[in-house]
Every structure is written in structure tokens, then in C-alpha cells.
Amino acid sequence: MHPLANDCNLVKAFSIPLVIPLRSASLTDRYGSRCIINTAIVLAALDFALMPWSSASLATALLAVVVWGLCGWGLLVPQQHRLISLSPASSPLLLGLNSAAVYVGVSVSGIIGVVAMTWLDRYALGLVGAVFIAAALLVAEWARLRISFRGEVIPAS
Hints:
Layout: H1 5-15, H2 20-31, H3 33-49, H4 51-54, H5 58-74, H6 76-86, H7 91-119, H8 125-149
């Protein structure tokens, strides 16, 4: 077997959940965007926090990568729904800013990973990621509270 066969399988496993945005749309309609976003963020944080242990075997690593993909791809529709519901008239601008923020986050993550590896073991990168994911949940909830205190209407979703 080729030495990269396992890495290729991990990449394939991450792309399997690409169909999840189709399902997350119906889940968003049923449970609301906030519920889906918060659930995905909590699952992703747990998944990343457990990566030092789940990377011990190929089977658990595949499972961890699939959960990562489910959470990551599953956030697209509820996040867009949330932004559009906040200001329908500004939705093109909000979606563009959201896309830009995603690109910046992906770009900065590589830098953060390199810096973290200079101080920590490479197996601790999942824990570093979990901290940033948990911070994202706190920022999302802070933003929701701030909007509600300003008297603006926050959709129940």
C-alpha cells in the first residue's frame, strides 16, 4: 500500500459530508439557525479537543475527519440564513463579508498552526483549534445578545 493512501482516505472522508448543506437547510427550517449553528460548533469543538486521541488509529481519525466535515459544511446554510434574517436588504453585503471572513480565517489558521507547533507538540493542534472554535461560539452568542439589547428583532431561529 502506498504510504499516502491513509492521507488520501482522510481527504476523501472530509469531502463526503459535502452534501450536508442540503440536509442542514431542512434542519435550519425545522429547528432554527441558532440551534444548528450552536450544535455544530459544540460538536466541532469536542471533535477537535479529542483529536490528540482520535488520531491514534485510522478508523478513529476517519471518524473525526467526517465529524469535522459534517460540522464545517453543515454551518454554511444556517449561517447564511442567520445573516439574511438579520438584514434582508443588506444580504448581498453580509454574505460577501461572511465569505471574506471565512477566507481570512482559513488563511490565518495556517499561521496560528505554525506558531502553535513552535510551542506545543503537533498532536496538540486539535486542542488549539478547539479553543478557537469555542471562542467562535462565545462571540456568536455575544453578538446575539448585543443585537437583542439594542432592541432589534432577533428571529427565534
